[in-house]
Please model this.
Amino acid sequence: MSNRNYKIGVLPGDGTGPEVVGEGLKVLEAVSEKCGFGYDLVKYDFGGERYLRTREVLPDSAIEEFKKLDSIFLGAIGHPDVKPGILEKGILLKIRFELDQYINLRPIKLYPGVDTPLKDKGVEDIDFVVVRENTEGLYVGAGGFLKKGTPDEVVVQESINTRKGVERCIRYAFELCKKRNKRNKLTLCGKTNVLTYAFDLWERAFNEVAREYSEISTDYAHVDAVCMWFVKNPRYFDVIVTDNLFGDIITDLGAMIQGGMGIAAGGNINPEGVSMFEPIGGSAPKYTGKNVINPLAAICAVQMMMDYLGEKEAANLIEKGVIKVTSEKLKSLSAGKMGYTTAEVGDMVANFVSG
Ligand code: IPM
Ligand code: MN
Model:
């Protein structure tokens, strides 16, 4: 990666994925010219359409190819004609697990000009990051059925938490909090009052690692209270670390308070390997092909990718471009209500970056 030429895998995926990915790539092109780095794109058509055509979800050979990339840019996975779970588990979770992307990083930041549904809250109130464990917990699919479909049916679905998996996630969160150097406060989000095995491990690992970070103040909150505070007093948070399922849930709430899915991006990060960046909004089938979906989330995903690849100037420029557009141009972040088309929003950010 040090030669500043990056091999980027692109998975546009389903629904509006290809449209927003196109705008993200437009901005990538502009910023690469401006900042003087190169890249090669490797496109893959995995997703619902390909699955319906060929019954292939994501072959192991693709995973082997992904391992040779510098990073991956994903649009959206999910198709109305495919049973829920097949593509999500077969593509998205398979990539996260096989590439050991053990962090799901979700910045929750309200940009100037963006409407939050929280009355009386502004940009100074909403600026924090969620570090979600991304390879364990309830997501591993441990469990099964017994006597399925009968009155005696038994179902077990277990949350798997390993010391190694929990600790590396917590360490990442402490490091991020230190690097961010904002309020230097890390909150563990759990449910120690009920999940007395899983979050006992989390709490012990958290407290042990905390001893190595005297400059970071630590704090604990139950997941239900975290939801309450997101709405009531989001300013309370700086960095939050939590398990896979709780992280999934609270980051959708986080996306809403930062202005919605039109702006929410995330990174699936393997700090020692290949990471993947995505807008978190999903495939939005009803807006597909209409040129009305907001591409800013995908553009923010490219911004996160630049930061991850060490292209800090590029990341800063993109963020400034996004802020320019939210603060001076868009009427709303919602699909169809922006006052501009998908492509026009992409053009505005690209032009800012080039200018
Ligand atoms: C997310 C998504 C996925 C998840 C789904 C699509 C499997 O909601 O990235 O947050 O639950 O992790
Ligand atoms: Mn989710």
